[in-house]
Amino acid sequence: MIGERDARSSVREPAGEGAAAVSLRGVVKRFGDFTAVDGLDLEVAPGTCLGLLGPNGAGKSTTMKLLTAQAIADEGTIRVLGLPVPAESKRVRAAMGVVPQQDNLDEELTVRENLEVFAHLYRVPRRERRRAVEDALALAHLTGRAHTKVDDLSGGMRRRLLIARGLVHRPALVLLDEPTVGLDPQVRAELWGLIDGLRSRGTTVLMSTHYIEEAERLADDCALMSRGRVVARGAPAALIAEHAGRRVVEHSGPPERLAEVERLAHAAGLPTRRTGPSVSVLKAESMPPSLADELGPDGAYRAATLEDVFVVLTGEKVE
Ligand SMILES: Nc1ncnc2c1ncn2[C@@H]1O[C@H](COP(=O)(O)OP(=O)(O)OP(=O)(O)O)[C@@H](O)[C@H]1O
To answer: Does the structure's ipTM exceed the value 0.90?
Structure first.
């Protein structure tokens, strides 16, 4: 029988040259009559950070749960670090780090004790445990708080500890489910620094988020999910270029004026999105001069963003 430690070292390198760290093919997950994940194909290259982006209910959390076998797919195949899931889910769970959306830290224990418990659970060898805990403390900038009880930490510190706890065994792959949801901008920026640091260590990161800026800042590659499927995939800049072009022109006015702008833009094959009391025409750089004349000179030009792509492809507003 293979030991936990052997299991860890054998899955550290995914099988085969360039093999994906995570691979889902044709994955379907239903809850009763409702299909939450609907034929999902997704691969994450080793050493990259993939942002799984999508509106509420798109199926991001369910996808994460399928990777840890907390949910079992009805159809399709899943491989994580070269191993099939759920068949090898125990080995897979030992080899990866999972940072849940919900804070489930042990409030009675200190920061260090929380990390020690997980180092033990993840079977970090006894002689390496102290070092592993020190490294995790340093990574999360919590060395000075090692003896503080979790109960006495700020929200941002708790979230950093939650991430550090998922990293204490130096996993090759980390799953981050909405790592900064509900946090204030300053704490969010702190966590972005921490997550960025993982990439420089060569850790593969799969991060779900519905914050566009988070994906834009951190992800090498984004998979945009809507209704259980990936509707677009690529580096943020490439997605913007493909779906929103370089420039966007915003026209404001009463509802009938907005509807007219939309009609003219669509007739010319240009996508649009509503932004409050205005309508944005995407790919404005390819607008025929005759259309520019018809729309008039009152438009405000700006650079296209990933948010434009998100809204156009998912039909959802950004929070
Ligand atoms: N255990 C369950 N039973 C029934 N329906 C579920 C269950 N888990 C998820 N769903 C439904 O599946 C859909 C996808 O949910 P999921 O949590 O994966 O979305 P998400 O993209 O992570 O959204 P959020 O950002 O809101 O977490 C939702 O409509 C949700 O209500």
So the answer is: yes
